[in-house]
Amino acid sequence: MSRPTARASASRRNAEVLLGKAQKRETNFKLEQEREYEALARKTARLRELRLAKEAAENESEAKARPAARSPRSRRSRQT
User: Fold this and answer.
1) What is the DSSP string of 16-45?
2) Positions in the chain whose pLDDT score sits under 70
3) What is the value of pTM for the model shown?
4) 8: number of CA atoms within 13 Å, CB side?
5) CA-to-CA distance for 48 and 50, rounded, in angstroms?
6) Could you give the 3-state DSSP secondary structure of residue 11?
7) How far is CA 48 from CA 35, 41, 54, in A?
8) Which CA distances in Å does 34 have to 3, 27, 29, 42, 48?
9) Other beta carbons less than 10 A from residue 65's beta carbon
10) d(CA 56, CA 49)
């Protein structure tokens, strides 16, 4: 009767090994996803900073290129 017990314990060991491998793959997958997310967040932040700096430089150069602002004239409505 010890034979079924040995078979059961061998099956249990195999199942535990497979479970351990699956858990390790899952952990590695989650770590990789976290790294990719962080890399994407850093890239997005860097690109946002570059875009804002470019827009600020463009606005500054436009302000320098524009002549002094004139006072707005009042408009009369058309009378027909």
Assistant:
1) HHHHHHHHHHHHHHHHHHHHHHHHHHHHHH
2) 1-4, 67-72, 80
3) 0.57
4) 5
5) 5
6) helix
7) 20, 10, 10
8) 47, 11, 9, 12, 21
9) 7
10) 11
Residues 4-25: pLDDT tens digits?
Answer: 688 889 999 999 999 999 999 9
Residue with tokens 């967040």: 41
Q: Show the tokens assigned to 36.
A: 């990719």
Q: Output the pLDDT for position 64.
A: 85
Domain boundaries, given as residue ranges, for the chain? 1-64
Q: Kindly state the tokens that stand for 25.
A: 């793959």
d(CA 38, CA 41): 5
